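Marked as duplicate of an earlier ticket. Keeping the data here for the record.
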Amino acid sequence: MAQTDISTLKGFIKEFYYRFMHDEVVGLSAQLAYFFLLSLFPFLIFIITLIGYLPISLDDLLGLVSKFAPGETMHLIETNLRQILDEPRGGLLSFGVIATIWSASNGINAIIRALNRAYDVHENRSYIISRLIAICLTVAMIVVIIIALLLPVFGKAIGLFLFTHFGISKSFMAIWDFIRIFISFFVMVVVLAMLYYFAPNKKLRISEVWYGVFFATIGWQLVSLAFSYFVLNFGNYTATYGSLGGIIVLMIWFYLSAMVIILGGEINAILRMAKMTRN
């Protein structure tokens, strides 16, 4: 670990660069992108299996995903997901679901290893414990995403119920509609807060993860928008990779997203180290 005064902006940037190189953020991001790709469709299929018992459609789920995924990536996800769901699969809420959760948790497990690297700690939790943490975080993410899907569907009805039965002013309805617009942002905040707090093999305070959470939340959305604009206007991946163009775009998006998540963890680790140094 480099001995750097990180109480100043210059020192923080120097430490940030050191960790970027020393912790091999580029390589870890590539690993995470690979696991994200393997986990994506099992994760979405499991969510669709659950929301099949709720008044939520596949289009509602795809609408939430489309807020982050670049256009060509979104087309690839939608096409393949509909193709998978059209095939007969038998009872999903059985052993197949357990296998699906296990597969989907691989991405979370990779994030755990990356955040342990950021905090310079080894994973001394048993394989079963670390895998259970990954599965629990996966299930928690599913719950949060389902809530995010339910709010747009039932948000208006919930607001009208509160307005009618509790005599809440009309201004509340405007505020409620405004809150529902930013659901995707709050979903990201909650999911990342859970990841940064529970994933590392380090006892943390919840107050120690917020800088990384907001960096990753805003950074991910900005990176997704910028990459989507680039693909739409400049990057003709289909001309270079043919039918694999959509997969290449998806992998690059996963790669950039993984890098943002890892950098958020690095920021939390740097600020925690700075706080401990001051104390």
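See parent ticket for discussion. The CA atoms of residues 237 and 245 lie 5 Å apart.
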